[in-house]
What we know:
This protein is mainly β. The chain is 13% helix and 44% strand. The protein has a single domain, classed as Jelly Rolls (Sandwich). It is found in: Secreted.
Amino acid sequence: xxxxxxxxxxxxxxxxxxxxxxSVGPIAFTAGLRNNLVxxxxxxxxxxxxxxxxxxxxxxxxxxxxxxxVRGAYVFFxxxxxxxxxxxxxxxxxxxxxxxxxxxxxxxxxxxTSSLAVTAQLEVGDHVWVQNEYTFSTTEQIDxxxxxxxSGHLIQQN
Length: 158
């Protein structure tokens, strides 16, 4: 009989842990860039300040960081638009570590838009942000007016 009670208690603990694990709701955000950024500095953080969606509240429009509220697989998207006759290159980072980069190059008399999609395993509290890769052009400029954006969502908690 004591073994049965022990097994029942263990099963109750497992069920409780699964209920907590699955209690997290959806996590998703999309934010756009309000103003054009001119002469962006090396490794300058890009703050996407027009929040269109922030389900779960994990994106901070003050510093431009997404902070993972749960451990899991996430996907992130960066859309980068340069200004006419300018170029821009940004990178996506997790806790300062490279996840990917995207270049919108000067195509001459036209805007250029490029995008990046990255899937990453995050731990609770991990920070993900976009920053200028480096200044490779004296005419570097990122187009605002919602043409450039940063978004992401939780695929699966694990």
